[in-house]
């Protein structure tokens, strides 16, 4: 079985791929952030060994609309948004999700009181926009989340939100981070409920476990 | 140290005072253990007295045993603590949803018994508003997180002042320089004092030899961690020392789908764990006992 390393797909949206079966996502690796700059001194005063990179796994949904089952490499087939939407499309964004057509039927928005236009660029369906008005590609969605969720983004940058895989010691090996969108659907970001995996079946643990008032 | 570590002397003394029958009962797990193992294994020295060649021989024998008993080829290594490293672990209770994937990852990684679905982690379902782990339950079976509940995974807290090591009559368990409390499975006599002494219910006793299909055995093994334990000994979480002493993250952290777990070197001021300690209001379980855990909990506020 080997390591439980990169093979494990932690993304919430992989949990739910039964519900949205078009979303059988396998992450595509994209190097977004490295702890670059000057090598940092280690606590023992030794010069730091070369530091390995931290990469953020970009979910395939940021590359386009999932349109088919995974190919032989396990990556879902996606159609870039531009396949059907030309950049410069003059049509205004809808005010809400009601009645959205085409392959997007059924999309719902449950994200605070924000609107489609809070995130999507007005004239390019393949792009998002920041509060400054600057247009950014879909694949940069993390910057969009960050601007409205400062505390979580700060925690994320310090490894205290969003999880990781690989090495705690970057002088020995690389690290992989999850993208916000891998765990939170931008349209309905609440994490949701899941069935737990089964617990211990050890008859002895029944005695050994902390005695609790039964919760009903 | 070598003077104190005398399992055989202890057993002899016990035998002398208890009488043969009572002694046999008292060490029943050990008796079973010796029946199923050869004399050479029984006479293995304490881990801390093994020279490099002894270790090589011991490891070769354990690897052979695993092949013979389980049909699996494994590599056992002796991972030593790194200098200037003290491990710390923190868990965000605002984010944990109680899905037990950490416990499951531990089960796989550490070659636990399949029948009992054993794991070093117990996830407790807790009533919101209560922080008393003794009031939590690990027997829940419904979609999580449930309304009004929160979830608290508990594993070995790698205490700085571990009550479990102090009570071991044969010094088969001790704390290493990086903070990890380990068990010498060849030295443990299975008396379970340590298990009783642990306020966090973090130790497990091997009532029988673990059953694991060959193809499910994790072949990357540590001498003091996830190598398959014999019957009749106590075991516990080692923060996956076979991974973490190699610079890697623990299996339970990697498996967490919510990103609730933070691990790292407490001596490195730039580490994630140090950031959490400095910026979150962390607390430890049963602080009043003075055990000084290296496992911290926090809520996002």
Please outline the helices and strands.
The complex is a heterodimer of chains A (216) and B (301).
Chain A: H1 12-15, E1 28-33, E2 54-58, E3 65-70, E4 76-79, H2 116-119, E5 127-129, E6 135-137, H3 141-148, H4 150-157, E7 164-166, E8 175-178, H5 180-183, H6 203-208
Parallel strand pairs in A: 2-8
Antiparallel strand pairs in A: 1-2, 3-4, 5-6, 7-8
Helix pairs in contact in A: 3-4
Chain B: H1 7-18, H2 20-26, H3 28-35, H4 39-42, H5 52-70, E1 75-77, E2 87-92, H6 101-109, E3 122-127, E4 149-154, H7 163-167, E5 173-175, E6 181-183, H8 193-197, E7 203-205, E8 220-222, E9 234-236, H9 241-244, H10 251-255, E10 261-265, H11 272-279, E11 295-298
Parallel strand pairs in B: 1-8, 2-11
Antiparallel strand pairs in B: 2-10, 3-4, 5-6, 7-9
Helix pairs in contact in B: 1-2
Q: What tags apply to this protein structure?
A:
heterodimer; A: 216 residues; alpha+beta; two-stranded antiparallel sheet; 6 helices; 16% helix; globular; disordered N terminus; B: 301 residues; alpha/beta; Alpha-Beta Plaits; two-stranded parallel sheet; 11 helices; 11 strands
Structural account:
- The complex is a heterodimer of chains A (216) and B (301).
- Chain A has 216 residues and is of the alpha+beta class.
- Chain A folds into two domains: 12-48, no CATH class; 54-183, no CATH class.
- Chain A contains six helices and eight strands.
- The longest helix of chain A has 8 residues, at 141-148.
- The radius of gyration of chain A is 21 Å and the shape is globular.
- Chain A starts with 11 loop residues before the first helix and ends in an 8-residue tail after the last helix.
- Chain B has one domain (1-301): Alpha-Beta Plaits, CATH 3.30.70.20.
- Chain B has eleven helices and eleven strands.
- In chain B, the strands form five sheets. In chain B, strands 10-2-11 form a three-stranded mixed β-sheet, covered by helices on one side. A two-stranded parallel ribbon of chain B has the order 1-8. A two-stranded antiparallel ribbon of chain B has the order 3-4.
- Chain B has helices spanning 7-18, 20-26, 28-35, 39-42, 52-70, 101-109, 163-167, 193-197, 241-244, 251-255, 272-279; strands spanning 75-77, 87-92, 122-127, 149-154, 173-175, 181-183, 203-205, 220-222, 234-236, 261-265, 295-298.
- Chains A and B meet through strand 7 and helix 6 of A and helix 6, strand 3, helix 10, strand 10 and helix 11 of B.
